[in-house]
């Protein structure tokens, strides 16, 4: 049984887990190299990949799976089962069309073993397809380059904007035009959040992926960071090397934050400064889900580092502040 002090500590910890506040969104995440990846946007009730199903992911109604590797999809049955246990609405799960049949079989096996419904809505999307989640939000897929079929997701906000030729007209005139069947608005789709999942850097130079690069927030993987692993090695395993990101950062116009997949002892302060200079903008190095923005990591933070925290770029058009990247475990 936990002591009252322990409970208070847990409550305080929960209150502080606000995520990385960036471009108007709170971004939370848990990613351990080769074990699990899950990135959460609570305000949109969305999770990207499910990892081993961290607790915070359960309350997200929409789940987007980038590919079928276990560290990205392994917690899927638990995610659905736990929502059912809590009498939550069946989730909507988006998967690459290539793996839909396998996912359906996965749930069939678990239903047989668990004798439960595991209710959910499963939607398969091919690269380039879109789906309207609600009136003001659609999701589109884009091509990524991994060792198995994979895809990224872009979340768009949809707004109706009055056409230029009708600007300045009295309200009654606009109403009359609308009632007479005249189309008075244009539909404006703004890319807000893009998520790559595991991929090589090739997606950056793919001309069809321009919206992923101009999204307010781009969450992309950069698994390898230094000379210990070559670019060729990264590409052999379908991942991105940090040096490739630097070489192509002229295409990524957002400002950047990133989290580390590696023990901080493996990343020297000199390299941190070098990355910040190469990226041109202020870089927040998030270590063990504790952010230390624009600072060289101190010994206390080093002691908290997990041995394997995945390196992600969380890039955005306009940084707002340097709040902590939430520990969702």
Automatic annotation (TrEMBL):
InterPro entries linked: Metallo-B-lactamas, RibonucZ/Hydroxyglut_hydro
Entry-linked Pfam families: Lactamase_B_2
SUPFAM superfamilies in alphabetical order: Metallo-hydrolase/oxidoreductase
Annotated Metallo-beta-lactamase domain residues: 61-248
Coiled-coil portions: none
Name of this protein: Metallo-beta-lactamase domain-containing protein
């Amino acid at each position: 049984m936990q002591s009252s002090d322990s409970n208070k500590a847990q409550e305080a910890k929960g209150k502080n887990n606000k995520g990385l506040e960036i471009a108007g969104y709170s971004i939370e995440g848990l990613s351990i190299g080769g074990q699990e990846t899950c990135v959460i946007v609570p305000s949109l009730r969305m999770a990207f990949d499910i990892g081993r199903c961290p607790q915070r992911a359960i309350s997200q109604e929409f789940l987007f799976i980038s590919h079928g590797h276990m560290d990205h999809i392994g917690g899927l049955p638990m995610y659905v089962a736990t929502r059912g246990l809590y009498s939550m609405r069946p989730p909507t799960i988006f998967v690459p069309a290539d793996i839909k049949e396998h996912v359906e079989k996965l749930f069939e096996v678990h239903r047989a073993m668990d004798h439960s419904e595991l209710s959910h809505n499963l939607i398969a999307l091919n690269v380039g397809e879109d789906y309207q989640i609600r009136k003001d939000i659609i999701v589109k897929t884009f091509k990524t380059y991994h060792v198995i079929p994979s895809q990224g997701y872009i979340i768009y906000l949809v707004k109706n904007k009055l056409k230029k030729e009708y600007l300045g007209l009295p309200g009654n005139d606009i109403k009359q035009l609308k009632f007479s069947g005249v189309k008075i608005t244009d539909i404006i789709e703004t890319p807000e959040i893009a998520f790559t999942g595991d991929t090589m850097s090739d997606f950056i130079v793919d001309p069809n992926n321009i919206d992923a690069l101009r999204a307010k927030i781009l969450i992309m993987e950069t698994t390898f960071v230094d000379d210990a692993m070559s670019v060729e090695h990264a590409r052999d395993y379908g991942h991105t090397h940090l040096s490739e990101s630097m070489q192509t950062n002229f295409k990524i116009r957002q400002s950047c934050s990133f989290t580390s997949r590696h023990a901080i002892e493996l990343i020297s302060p000199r390299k941190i400064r070098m990355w910040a200079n190469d990226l041109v903008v202020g870089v927040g190095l998030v270590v063990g889900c504790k952010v230390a923005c624009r600072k060289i990591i101190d010994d206390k933070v080093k002691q908290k580092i997990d041995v394997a925290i995945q390196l992600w770029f969380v890039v955005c058009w306009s940084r707002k502040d340097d709040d902590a990247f939430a520990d969702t475990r």
